[in-house]
Amino acid sequence: MGQEIPGCINLTLGEPDFCPPEHALEAGSQAAEAGMTHYAPTNGMSELREGLAQKAYRDYGLSYDPNCEVLITVGGTEAIFTALMGLLNPGDEVLIPNPGFVAYEPGVLLAEGIPTYVPLIEEKDFLPSVEDVTSLVTDRSRVMILNFPNNPTGAVLSYDEAATLAKIAVDRDMIVISDEVYEKIVYNGTQHYCLATFPGMRERTLVVNSFSKTYAMTGLRVGYVYGPRELISSLWLVHQYVVACVDNLAQFIALAALKGSQDFVKDMLREFDRRRHLVHKRLNKIDGFECQLPRGAFYVFPNIKAFGMSSEGFAEFIAKEAGVLTVPGSAFGSYGEGYVRISYAAAYEKLEEALDRIDKAVKKLA
Ligand SMILES: Cc1ncc(COP(=O)(O)O)c(C=O)c1O
C-alpha cells in the first residue's frame, strides 16, 4: 500500500535506519579486494565463531566450543527455521508467543510441528504467565520459543520471570529456542538475561542471535546460534544442505563489527531511546491510544481498541488518512488484535510529523 501513497511515512520497518559501522564495511571491501569470495566453512568462519564464543563468555559467562557449539547462519531467520527443521518430529508441539515474530508459526508448520499459542497480553505487561504456560504444556510439547526483548511489544523479562520460564522448561524437559536478536536494544538500565544462563538451561537452550539489529546489518544476513553440541549438530546438518555456508564477505564485515569499537551500538541506542520517549509520550496524548513504555527493541505496541476498529482497519485508515504506515497487531497473531505496531526506526523529525498526522487523522473519528 505504501507505494500507492505519495509522501507516506513508513513506520513498519523492522530494521534500524542506520548504516553499519564504517570500519566494518571497510573490512568487507578489503576482504573483497583480497579475493575472499569463495565458500566459507559450512558452520561459519572460524575467527567469527571464536569471537562469538568469547562474546558469550564476556556477556553471560557461558562457555561454548567454537568448533561445535556455535553455528553461523543466514540471519536469525535461518537459525530459527533450521532449528525447527532439525529438532521437530511430525506432531511435536511448540509453544510460540502470540503476538509474536511472524516467522515462528510458518517454521513450526513447515517442520510438521503443531503451534501452541502462549498469549502475551497487555494486562500482564505482554509477558507469558506461568499459569498459561503450564496449562499449555502437554506430553507432546517439545520446544518453547521465547523472544525477549520482544517483537512486536518491546517487553523484556526480569530475572525472576526468566528464571520461572526456565524452570518450566527444565521440569517439563523442553528445548528452548531463545530468540535474543534484540539483546543489545534495552533501555534505561534494563538488563537482558540470556535464557541459557539459568540452572539446567545451557544443555537445552539454543540461543538465536544476529548482527542484523545490533549493527544495522539486516541486508548482510549474518546470524548465529549457540547451543550444546548435540543440538547444534542437528541444526548444522540442515543448514549445510540448505545454504552451504553464509556469505563470506558478510562474515568479514560481521567479524570487524564484533571486534571493533562498540560505540556504534551505544550511539544507536541513545537515539532510539530519544525516539521511544517521543512516540510513547505523543501517542498517549492522543485520545484513544494507550501505550506502554517498552523496555526493549524499537517498537511501540499501542492499544487502539477505543477507536472501535479492527487493527487491520485502523492501520488502513491511518495509511489513507494520515499517510502513515503501521503494522496491524493481528499480523503477529490473534492476541495482537486491537493493537498496532509502530517502529521508531525512523528519523526523529519523521516520527514527529507522523504523530502530528496521526493526531489530526484520528480526530476525524471522534
Ligand atoms: C524477533 C525477531 N527474530 C528474528 C528476526 C530475524 O532477523 P534476521 O534474520 O535479520 O537476523 C527478527 C527480524 O525482524 C525479529 O524481529
Task: Tell me about this structure.
This protein is about 40% helix and about 15% strand. The mean pLDDT is about 95. It has helices spanning about 20-35, 45-60, 75-85, 105-110, 130-135, 160-170, 230-245, 250-260, 265-285, 310-320, 350-365; strands at about 10, 70-75, 95-100, 115-120, 140-145, 175-180, 205-210, 225, 300, 325, 325-330, 340-345. It has a 7-stranded mixed β-sheet with strand order 2-8-7-6-5-3-4, with helices on both faces. It has a 3-stranded antiparallel β-sheet with strand order 9-12-11. Pyridoxal-5'-phosphate binds near residues 14 and 75.
Brief characterization of the structure:
The chain is an alpha/beta fold and about 375 residues long. Helices cover about 40% and strands about 15% of the residues.
Distance between the termini: 25 Å
Structural class: alpha/beta
- The portion of residues forming beta strands comes to 5-15%
Q: With helices defined by DSSP (H or I, 4 residues minimum), what is the helix count? A: 11
Order of helices and strands: EHHEHEHEHEHEEEHHHEHEEEH
Radius of gyration: 20 Å
What is the β-strand count? 12
Bound molecules: pyridoxal-5'-phosphate
Strand and helix map with partners:
Blueprint: E1 9-10, H1 22-33, H2 46-60, E2 70-73, H3 75-87, E3 93-98, H4 104-110, E4 114-119, H5 130-136, E5 141-147, H6 159-171, E6 175-179, E7 205-210, E8 223-226, H7 229-243, H8 248-259, H9 263-285, E9 299-300, H10 311-322, E10 324-325, E11 327-328, E12 340-343, H11 348-363
Parallel strand pairs: 1-10, 3-4, 3-5, 5-6, 6-7
Antiparallel strand pairs: 2-8, 7-8, 9-12, 11-12
Helix pairs in contact: 1-8, 2-8, 3-4, 3-7, 9-11, 10-11
The protein binds pyridoxal-5'-phosphate.
